[in-house]
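To assess whether ligand presence alters the predicted conformation, the chain was also submitted together with MU-OXO-diiron. Input:
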Amino acid sequence: MLSDKILASLNRQHGAEIAAFYLYRAMQSYFLDHNLDGFAQWMNTQANEELEHAGKIYDYIHDRGGAVKLSAIDAPKQDWKSPLEVIQDAYDHEKKVSTMIHDLIDEAVSEKDRATEVMLQWFVAEQVEEEALFDRVYQRVKFAGDSPTALLLIDQEMGARPTSGGEGEV
Ligand code: FEO
């Protein structure tokens, strides 16, 4: 049985994962509007991964006999000045999610909820991968600077990411 505190935090994390899906959808739309189809496809894959993350927490809450409580999702930011700003925001968002996961683990430890602690280990490893992935893209887009040619080359590489959630090479 989940404690009220852990249940509330898991529900909050579930909402945060859905909010990340929403944010990455907005970013996908930005890239489509700017004819950067590779970036858009990459962001679509990322958005879908966020739904998978939410689903893991959703299932876990039910497995532990808890009730999923859905709350309103705020509209995400939808205007950016450049592709670099989009990627920077996405990278910052992943760092924020990592902090949330770590805080949730601290709570699970203090509540002696070993099952939740173990379940969250998957997210710790996932966040390491995601931060590395976003950092790599961020560094490459930053390196491209004002060169449309470099940006289009990166766009091609981004489009090569598997759509089923693989991390790809970029
Ligand atoms: Fe579910 Fe990208 O954090």
